[in-house]
Amino acid sequence: MSLESVRAxxxxxxxxxxxxxxxxxxxxxxxxxxxxREGLPxxxxxxxxxxxxxxxxRAAKAHIDPEPVKKIFEIxxxxxxxxxxxRNGNKEHRVIPGRQIDPY
Length: 104
Hints:
Largest sheet: none
Distance between the termini: 52 Å
Structural class: mainly alpha
Helix content: over 70%
Number of strands: 0
Shape: flat
CATH class: Mainly Alpha
Mean pLDDT: 88
Number of domains: 1
CATH superfamily: Chorismate mutase
């Protein structure tokens, strides 16, 4: 296998990753609608901890460093929360991964 062919495969994986992030963000919109309907806050600390922990465990089982994977999931959760805040009309709200925010 040549360097170019391996890089081409990486590019395809990168495209898949972006496609999955888009899919996750679309699902976050649905979550936002449900939370608004049920009067729930955007931030669900228990759920965030579960998602991050589960991602770390899956990474460890796959024999890769779980810490960077957990950071990636912190960013994904922050993106989802930011999307939910924007959808709820709080366009000024910025979620920073790793920073606690007060639930609305």
